[in-house]
């Protein structure tokens, strides 16, 4: 009789334990899905940069540290920031201007950011254009509600389930036309982060004429080969020391 009762209680105990485990797992998954996203973890190869320049940075990842390292905290340089977005948050050029007295050009089609550049980035000239392979056109741009980080000319890239998508028409310009209009002759640092539109931007850029010393360019898998082919054709090479320090972007410098 006692043995029979024990045998009946054992399955009930299993069920109770399983219910507790299921509840804990469900709560953990819910927290993971609902909490705000955190910045990327620091790759092992980026830890020397963290030790030397960190822990603070305005860029999303180690882009700011890498630019400082490459230029050895050079002062009074000139940058071009394509897909500049917010004047400070996730900016690859904020520290260059505010900490090292650089000046430059920020290009961003979302005009909501323009006033803050005028207020907080006086050494930066802001231009509300969509950088592409032709000027004086209208391009469709897709923006997620409450999030501008994945804004793109590629609707499929920007779309996320359950998120409201806004379609905008924005004016286009080539880098050549903009830099010529601003009488830019040489660029120290160029940052390009325009969510799959990088090959279009490069197609309108005469890199051999402007000769940037360092290019930081986001390289999603869909366009990575086109980016690699462009820089190879124009005699730029990947800066190997940063290849594993930043797994999102590629860094190119002229072949010596």
């Amino acid at each position: 009789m006692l043995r029979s009762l024990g045998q009946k209680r054992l399955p009930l105990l299993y069920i109770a334990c399983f219910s507790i485990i299921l509840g804990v797992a469900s709560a953990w998954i819910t927290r993971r899905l609902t909490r705000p996203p955190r910045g990327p973890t620091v790759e092992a190869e980026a830890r020397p940069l963290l030790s030397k320049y960190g822990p603070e940075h305005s860029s999303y990842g180690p882009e700011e540290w890498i630019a400082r390292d490459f230029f050895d905290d050079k002062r009074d340089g000139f940058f071009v920031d394509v897909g500049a977005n917010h004047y400070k948050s996730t900016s690859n050029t904020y520290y260059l201007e505010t900490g090292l007295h650089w000046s430059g050009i920020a290009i961003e089609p979302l005009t909501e950011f323009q006033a803050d550049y005028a207020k907080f980035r006086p050494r930066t000239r802001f231009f509300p254009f969509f950088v592409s392979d032709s000027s004086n056109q209208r391009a469709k741009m897709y923006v997620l509600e409450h999030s501008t980080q994945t804004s793109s000319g590629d609707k499929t890239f920007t779309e996320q389930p359950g998120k409201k998508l806004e379609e905008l028409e924005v004016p286009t310009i080539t880098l050549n036309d903009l830099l010529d209009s601003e009488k830019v002759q040489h660029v120290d640092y160029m940052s390009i982060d325009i969510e799959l539109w990088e090959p279009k931007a490069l197609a309108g850029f005469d890199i051999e004429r402007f000769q940037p010393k360092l290019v930081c360019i986001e390289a999603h898998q869909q366009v990575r080969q086109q980016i690699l082919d462009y820089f190879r054709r124009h005699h730029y090479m990947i800066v190997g020391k940063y290849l594993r320090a930043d797994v999102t972007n590629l860094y190119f410098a002229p072949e010596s």
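The first strand starts at residue 78 and ends at 82. DSSP finds ten helices and eleven strands in the chain.
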